[in-house]
Amino acid sequence: MKVTDIVFPQGFLWGAATAAFQVEGATDVDGRTDSIWDVFCRVPGNVVGGDCGEPAADHYRRFEQDVRMMAELGLRAYRFSIAWPRVRPDGGAVNQAGLDFYRRLIDTLLAHDIQPWPTLYHWDLPQKLEDAGGWAARDTAFRFADYATATAEALGDRVTNWTTLNEPWCAAFLGYAAGVHAPGRTDPAAAVAAVHHLLLGHGLAAQAIRTAAAFTRVGITLNMYPIIPADPASAADQDVARRLDGLQQRIFLDPLLRGEYPADVVADLEPFGFSRHVRAGDLELISGPLDMLGVNYYTEHHVSSRPGETGPSPWVGVGDHSFPRRDFPRTDMGWEVRPEGLTSVLLRLHAQYPRLPLYITENGAAFRDEIDGDGVQDVDRTAYLESHLRAAHDAIEMGVKLRGYFCWSLLDNFEWAEGYAKRFGIVHVDYDTQVRTPKMSAKWFARVARGNALVAVR
């Protein structure tokens, strides 16, 4: 089969994604106050290079240029996040200047026939709310609903597709258990509380968006990975895979799509007091109607009952059970390139859960790009994207309701704890000059988006 024989369904949505703290910069402009990531970055040792989200890719000041570039690349949708500390600084009163920025961004997108896909929460909790308990406190879910209401009332006449949360697993477990993301806490009990309160916040926010904005579709984005036992014949390895799959996937999927937490996961988390956070009516809110589900995919996890290196684990109470292998190519993040895992994730959702429209809301790779007179010839990233789009198309051929694909990321950006050391963008950013240079991958992806079909990598 020729590459060009792989055609996507009519109307398939092609886009790229970013997140506010990673690209906007302007962290103290127009009334914005500190998020947990601003504070986390200032602690020596938390971020590679000691850098933070300023100026990042300066998207706050350069968004018009960036939108023109998206249009030139043939993108039909832009997934971005709205910064809570801009819209309701310190979690308090509405800041009109913050809302006006997103209004200008959305209007510019629409003028270029690009659909805006805002995410309300991509990890930038106002620091004052963290000081009051953060996501470990139930009240934060209600403050999130207030923020959702204000945002949807202001922008709902321009936006059809809303996402409440991005990767609540990371927010809860990396931020509150492992301490490697903001707010940098290592408190397993706080992490399991954060899981429920994030989901409750989603349910409240989804309800608020539907009330505030007509003709709206609401979804949530989860990061999903196959959790595979290193030895399928080992009962111990199987049990580790069950527990980790429960904490990575089912603790979010089941309440959202089935209206209940998985009994085995609840039992695993009882030493950390999980059940006491779940009150009457919570699950009804969490399992309210969803119009779509976003899937972020990067790699697979192979796990073993023989622990690896010790240290704080993002999987509460089960230690480090990663199983390193040496026979697969890896990205600059050290993640194995496993496109077949994307097919597996999509088929699992199709087979085991209600069949919502699915969107790949993040997929991409960091590599060590070098810019020269010929631009950036990021052959590895282009091959990564091509192989994963093949995997996505395989799932479509098997009946999966996949409706769109957002490449991560549009721009090189601030990569959380890795600082500026890792580049995920299909567009190179010179952080000193802020010059944008579309890479080989961007030019290839533009041909794919325009043709709605895979094209030869050249």
The SSE order reads EHHHEHHEHHEHHEEHHHEEHEHEEEH
Decide which structural class fits the backbone. Answer: alpha/beta
Straight-line N-to-C gap: 17 Å
Major sheet summary line? 8 strands, parallel, barrel
Q: Which regions contain 5 or more consecutive residues with pLDDT less than 50?
A: none
Number of strands: 12
Strand content: 5-15%
Radius of gyration: 21 Å
| Tally of contiguous helical segments | 15
- Order of neighbouring strands in the sheet with most strands: 1-2-3-4-5-7-9-10
Averaged pLDDT, please?
Answer: 94
What level of helicity do the residues show?
A: 25-40%
Structure write-up:
The protein is an alpha/beta fold and 458 residues long. It is 39% helix and 13% strand. The protein has helices at residues 20-23, 36-41, 59-72, 84-87, 96-111, 127-131, 139-155, 168-176, 188-212, 235-258, 263-269, 282-286, 340-352, 379-397, 440-451; strands spanning 13-17, 77-81, 115-121, 161-166, 217-223, 227-229, 292-296, 301-303, 358-362, 402-408, 427-429, 436-438. The strands form 3 sheets. Strands 1-2-3-4-5-7-9-10 form an 8-stranded parallel beta barrel, surrounded by 6 helices. Strands 6-8 form a two-stranded parallel sheet. Strands 11-12 form a two-stranded antiparallel sheet. Helix 14 (379-397) links the parallel strand 9 and strand 10 (402-408). It starts with 12 loop residues before the first strand and ends in a 7-residue tail after the last helix.
